[in-house]
Amino acid sequence: MPGLMAGTDPDPASPVSAGEFERAMTAIGGFEPAPAVAVGVSGGGDSMALLLLLRHWAASCGGSLLALTVDHGLRAESGREAMMVGAAVRRLAVPHRILRWEGSKPSAGLQAEARAARHRLLAGACAEAGILHLALAHNRDDQAETVLLRLSRGSGIDGLAGMAPVRAEGLVRVMRPLLGFPHDRLLATCRAHGASWVEDPSNGDRRFARARLRAARELLGAEGLDAERLCGVARRAGRARSALEQATADLLASAATLHPEGWITIDPSALLAAPEEIALRGLARCLVVVGGGARPVRDDAVERLLAGLAAGQAGTLAGCVVRPRRGAFMIAREPAAAAERLHLAPGARELWDGRFDVRVSPLRPGPVTVAALGSAGWREWGVERRQFAGRDLPAAVRETLPSLWSGTELLGVPAILPMSGSNPDGQVPADSAMLAPPFPLGRQAFTVVSDRDGII
Questions:
Q1: CB 444 within 8 A of CB 246
Q2: Contacts (Cβ under 8 Å, ≥6 apart) of 332
Q3: Domain boundaries in the chain?
Q4: pLDDT at 383
Q5: Residue 181: which of 48, 21, 30 has the closest Cα?
Q6: What pLDDT score was predicted for residue 6?
C-alpha cells in the first residue's frame, strides 16, 4: 500500500502529504466513526511529524487526538523538556499529558526497561481515557535498525519481521503508520509546518547498540544493507511469521482448552501430529499464558520439553509444570514459582502473579494479603467448604490459586468462590479473581503490509 511500503517515496526530501498519510491510515483500518486516538510525542522530529499528520487526519474524520509524553526521569533536564514539548503541543490546540516513570531505575538493561515502562505508561493512559488506538512514530529507518539489530543477535523469522504496523496489546491497539516513510521526509514535514523539534542526546550515545548501528549506516548501505533492503527483509519475514502464527492459533483453537483456574489442557495427538514448528509455537504460547509471561521461553528448552512429552515424560519450564494427565497434556503453574504476595486495601485491584485480576471487596474491614493457596490452604478450604474438597483440579492448580489472607486466617479463594465470609455488619464481601493472562491464547497473528492485499 502506498505510504506504508518501503521504496515508494516520490522524493526523499519531500514532506509527507495528507493524502499519503490518509492512505497509510486506511491500510491500517479498524477505526470506529469519529475515532479517538492517542499519540506518543517525545518532541523529536518523527513524533512531531506524526502529531501534525494525525491532527489533520483526526479533524478530517471528526475524531479526537490526545498527545502523551513520557518523562523517564533519566536526566536532570528531562522534566523541563517534557514541559516544553507539552507547550509546543498545546500551541497546536491538541490536549497533552505528561506521564512520569517513577521509582528506581535499573543499572543494567536500562533502554529495555525504559521502553517497557514507556509502553506501560502509554497503554495505561489510553485505558484511563477510554482510547483504543495508540500511534507511535517508528519510521522506515527505525524498522531497518530493528531488523539489523535482531540479525546481529541471531534472531529467527519472528525477530526479522521487525515491528508490525498494527498490533493489539492488552486494552490498546498500537499502530505505527510511519513505517513506510524515511526519517528525512518526517523532518521535511516538520519544516513544512513550521514546527521545531528536539533531538534526544541518547540517540547518539554509543553505549547503546542502536546508536552504534546508526554510526555505521553509511558503511552498511554501501554494502547493500540499506534501509530499503532491510525493510524488504522485514516484509518477507513478516509474511512467514503471520502464516506461522495463524497456523498456531488454528492448532490451539481446536486442541487446547484454557480453564478459568489458570491451567491449560491440550490434545496430545493434535499437538504431536502438527508440524514441529507449529507444535513448538503452540506449546510456547501455552507456557507464556499459564506462566504469566514473567520468564522468556527459549527455543531449545521448548524443543526438549516437546520431545519429553512425546516420550511420555513430564517437565517444568517458564514457571510451569507440564505433564500427561488423563489423556491430555496438562500445563499448570509451578507451585514454587507462584511466590508473589500482594498487600491490598479494601476496594483495591491489582494483577497477581501476572495471571489473575484480583479485586478486594470494599466491604472488607481491613487490608488483606493475596498469595498462592498452597496445599495446606486447600486442605483447610476443602474441610470448611466440603463441596470443593473433591473438585477435580490438579494439585498444582489448587496450590497456585490466588487466595486472600488476614495474617494466618484464610478469608477466601475468589477464583472458585467469589463470595466468602462477612464483615462486622454482617454484609458478605464480594471479592473476585478473574484469569487475565498477559497474552491471549489465540492472539492476533502478526500483521504485515502487502501491495496486493493491504494489511494481512
A1: no
A2: 262, 263, 264, 290, 320, 321, 394, 396, 397, 400
A3: 18-240, 247-336, 339-435
A4: 60
A5: 21
A6: 40
- What whole-number distance in Å separates Cα of residue 352 and Cα of residue 283? 23
State the cell numbers at 12: 526523499
Average pLDDT value for residue range 112-131? 89
Same-fold call for 18-240 versus 247-336: no
pTM above 0.85, yes or no: no
Mark the binding-site residues for ATP, compressed into ranges. 42-47
Report the range out of 212-226, 298-312, 376-390, 432-446 with the highest average pLDDT: 298-312
Mark the binding-site residues, compressed into ranges. Answer: 42-47
Under the banding of pLDDT at 50, 70 and 90, the label for residue 446 is low
Write the secondary structure of the chain as one string of H (helix), E (strand) and C (coil).
Answer: CCCCCCCCCCCCCCCCCHHHHHHHHHHHCCCCCCCEEEEECCCCHHHHHHHHHHHHHHHHCCCEEEEEEEECCCCCCHHHHHHHHHHHHHHCCCCEEEEECCCCCCCCCHHHHHHHHHHHHHHHHHHHHCCCEEECCCCHHHHHHHHHHHHHCCCCHHHHCCCCCEEEECCEEEECCCCCCCHHHHHHHHHHCCCCCCCCHHHHCCCCHHHHHHHCHHHHHHCCCCHHHHHHHHHHHHHHHHHHHHHHHHHHHHHEEEECCCEEEECHHHHHHCCHHHHHHHHHHHHHHHHCCCCCCCHHHHHHHHHHHHCCCCEEECCEEEEEECCEEEEEECHHHCCCCEEECCCCEEEECCCEEEECCCCCCCCEEEEECHHHHHHHHHHHCHHHCCCCCCHHHHHCCEEEEECCEEEECCCCCCECCCCCCCCCCECEEEECCCCCCCCCCCCCEECCCEEC
State the pLDDT at residue 224.
Answer: 65
- Cell reading at 227: 534501509
What does the pLDDT look like over 67-100, one tens digit per residue?
Answer: 999 998 777 788 888 899 999 999 999 999 999 9
On the question of pLDDT at 206 being above 60, the answer is no
Q: Give the end-to-end CA distance of the chain in Å, rounded to a whole number.
A: 11
- Domain at 247-336, CATH from 3.40.50, 3.30.160, 1.20.120, 1.20.59: 1.20.59
At the topology level of CATH, where does 18-240 sit?
A: Rossmann fold (3.40.50)
CA distance 54 to 58: 6
Query: d(Cα 118, Cα 203) in Å, to the nearest integer?
Result: 16
Q: Does the structure show a pLDDT above 60 at 424?
A: no
- pLDDT for 445 equals 57
Question: What digits encode the pLDDT tens for the residues 41-50?
Answer: 999 999 999 9
